[in-house]
Known about the structure:
Number of domains: 4
Pfam family, one: Methyltr_RsmB-F
Number of helices: 20
Bound molecules: S-adenosylmethionine
Family: Belongs to the class I-like SAM-binding methyltransferase superfamily. RsmB/NOP family.
Active site: 361 (nucleophile)
Largest sheet: 8 strands, mixed
EC number: 2.1.1.-
Distance between the termini: 63 Å
Protein name: RsmB/NOP family class I SAM-dependent RNA methyltransferase
Radius of gyration: 23 Å
Amino acid sequence: MTPSAHALAAIEILTAVEANHRPVASALKDWGASHRFAGSGDRARIASVVYDALRSRASIAWRMGSDAPRALVLGALAFVRGATTEDLARAFADARHAPEPPTDAEAAAIASASLDGAPAHVRGDYPEWLDASLARAFGEERAEHGAALARRAPLDIRVNALKADRAKVLRSLAHLNPVETPLSAFGLRIPLGDDGRGPPVQAEPAYQKGLFEVQDEGSQLAALVAGAAAGQQVVDLCAGAGGKTLALAAQMRNRGQLYAYDSDVRRLSPLHDRADRADVRNLQIRAPKGEADVLSDLRDRADLVLVDAPCTGTGTWRRNPDAKWRMRPGALEQRNLEQDEVLDAAAGLVKPGGRLVYVTCSVLKEENEDRVAAFRARRPDFAATPAAAAAVEAGLPQLAAFANADGDALLLSPRRSDTDGFFVAVLRRA
Length: 430
Ligand SMILES: C[S@@+](CC[C@H](N)C(=O)[O-])C[C@H]1O[C@@H](n2cnc3c(N)ncnc32)[C@H](O)[C@@H]1O
């Protein structure tokens, strides 16, 4: 398929998303199933155009004067990828399957488009109804933070210290030109292609051998700040597929006991294979069993409980721009209830003197500082660790630069730390 045919397919897919209110991932899957001639490379290139359009949907719509799928795709090609009207006209005229060449009005929009005078939610490419929340988080700079969350995300991997070191993985992936990430001592960043796609690293022999995992540098840092140590009793209470569990296991060097729990048994299932591949030997996966409390034996026993809480995921909008536009008022309140519940459950597992580390991949205070404040009002026996001290304890003093306004938690974000958005609060039980 030609790049013009990819653009045409992207318009079709965005049209289906809009018409049927479908998640974009399932619309992409359906398109692939009904266009079998398109290989995996074509499907990935089409998805990349769709995601470029969605990340910048509001600002493209403003500049093009339309939020129709065609305007979004032409805008993505022009404003994200740098194509001129002439480039588009030539490419579309030369291809058999292609969108119609740009109209005069579209050409004029592409040539003269500016975001001057656009409101913050347009410049920052986020839903208007979230403006007050983003203003609480970032004040006058919310449009710039939103714009950073609307850029393409890098491809980061975490070297598995149980099996390798950075030098070894750098050598095995040399053909992909990785560089060391600036903040995590276990991170490597792999350059993306011009179209924003990363190489299929999971097909690499080094991945199959468990030498590394795909994990954003911000997620790596959250796990490092949690600070699991060899010999400890550690609970990962919202383990999901285990991204952070595996990072904690590497810190523990297979000594002590690590427990992974998630209230959704289906999310835990990939962790079994992932842990085997990573050579993790001190992990017990505690899947929920009906009404039974499968963690009752751990009450007041854990040196560390990590709560990687269910959240709106605003910090991961670069990777999941569809979620940004699908998020509805009410979702925040629902997540807040879950966050309070899981914090209370975690508190019951921490031993006196132990740590509870609360993490979200959201930048919103409603899910972060507000939840910690409400928790501390319920549980005055837990004290917040200043962010600078938590960074030093984790051997990462440079993270003190990312302390939140109150100085009692870390706030990472694309604009602050060139990572996904993460909030990390370290609480210690008296
Ligand atoms: C942010 S995700 C976890 C991601 C995972 N830790 C990782 O690093 O890949 C949050 C998880 O919390 C789980 N969850 C939601 N409510 C929970 C509860 N009350 N107890 C335990 N897990 C819960 C969800 O099923 C979801 O998998």
